[in-house]
Design goal:
The complex is a heterodimer.
Chain A (H helix, E strand, L loop, with lengths): L2 H16 L1 H20 L6 H31 L1 H6 L5 H27 L6 H23 L5 H15 L1 H7 L13 H11 L7 H28 L6
Helix pairs in contact in A: 1-5, 2-3, 2-5, 3-5, 3-6, 3-7, 3-8, 3-9, 5-6, 6-7, 6-9, 6-10, 9-10
Chain B lengths: L2 E8 L8 E8 L4 E5 L6 H8 L7 E6 L2 E2 L11 E4 L11 H9 L9 H7 L15 H13 L5 E5 L7 H17 L2 E6 L2 H7 L2 E6 L2 E6 L1 H7 L4 E8 L2 E8 L7 H9 L2 E6 L4 H9 L5
Parallel strand pairs in B: 3-8, 3-9, 6-7, 7-8
Antiparallel strand pairs in B: 1-2, 1-4, 4-5, 9-10, 11-12, 11-13
Amino acid sequence: MSAFAQLVGNDMRTLYRSGYVWVSLAVFGLMLLVALQASRLDFAGYEAFIAAIILFDVVLSPLMLVGLMVLLERGEGAFAVLCVSPVSTPAYMAARVVTVSLIALAQTLVLVLAVYDGALSPLALTAGLAGAASLSALFGFVVIAYFDDLYAYLLPMIGAILALGAPGYGVLLGIAPQWLVWHPTAGALALIETAFDLDASHGLAGAGASLAAWILAAGGLAYLAVRRMQARIGDAS
Amino acid sequence: MMIEANELTFAYGGRPPSVAALTFSVAEGEIFGFLGPSGAGKSTTQKILIRLLRGYRGDLRVMGRPVKSWGPDYFERVGVCFELPGNYRKLTAIENLRFFASFFRTPTLAPEEVLEWVGLRADADKRVEQFSKGMQTRLNLARSLINRPTLLFLDEPTSGLDPGNARIVRDLIRRERDRGTTVFLTTHDMHVADELCDTVGFLVNGRLARVGAPSALRLEHSSRLVEIRSGVAGALRSDRFSLEGLAANPLFQKLIAEKRIESIHSLEPSLEDVFMRVTGERLA
């Protein structure tokens, strides 16, 4: 099995044995409850509301799980050992992004199936969700690089999740969408909204390009963040 | 040469250099001890050598290639054992070794065999969270040996071990050296260094004060005296003699002739004494 597959497998195993996957599922359960309650109401802009819930849900767990796992690995010294193994930094990061994004994607698809029975574009939905989850995971590396313990990480983590979900609930709060068009997850939200509104396929290319550009930028920032953590290995914290 | 450093200098940010103008070389198959008190620059040097720190100045070559030019394949041939444990605590010992072994393209040792070497075979299926610190330290060493490295970096390898397990680890390090592995050992434990190292370098305030074989350094700073303890009228007395003209010394001859000698010791300084004389610093 390749090193990448081993890393993904180990991440899954670590998430299960550390109990972090249950934390993620508990948070997802709450989101599902909110979405299910909302689906029983009849109000204008229901699709926009669901799209916002979906965006918030899909950016929540990747950032949280990446931070928790990196903290765990740094605390146990396993991060240091990985850094002096033949595994490259991009492979380590990619495996983690894939693992937590798959979990977020699976949870969010369950949520969509539970609360929406209209026509939708699976391709646009999957692209939007996967892009948003990857972005969230990559920003997870960026944020956790500045913290050494869980308690210090919690508030910034919540702040980062709220910031990443802003285009979704920003619309609900009455913020004009064009004000947030620059936002890292604006492209992902556009793809998710398009998935529910099959006629609104215009602007898809722009949304995809914006999302891809942000993923590249976040990947670069995450790489620098991991390098920063590597340079601090063995330093007194 | 396995490692060649020439004018190696590194500074964190705008701070004064942590290591400055280090020049040393490590031959293939030797145990090189990098000795110094906390904050001397040992860890910084090791972090540069294991590619965790970049942005150094000077020339640094390992296995004939500049360290900067190596990629992750560097670690196919290098093993690193940190002082602090580095294992997934929720995984068993054998799961940890299998996981880390899976990254190598080159053949690796059987995890069971390496665990046997460090006396952990019976604990292979225990989760690491159940291990004592000493067991985790030994598992660390086992993990660093799994790829049969050509170059092994060890940071305080006997720290936290009881005397029996410390001996197991020291024997294992010697065995690796005898197999041809080059060992770069950072420590502030002079006894470990004296017992294991073929060459030591004294590092103080980021500068290399002296490099040499421990025995040669001790001899160089020896007072060339011998201390003799002898029994006289039921009591022990101690006399010191210069090694110069010892055989012709009348008192020495008398003690030998009367067969009252209980012990004879040459008064060589310990490696720690030599370190203090050379650097003017204590090891802490």
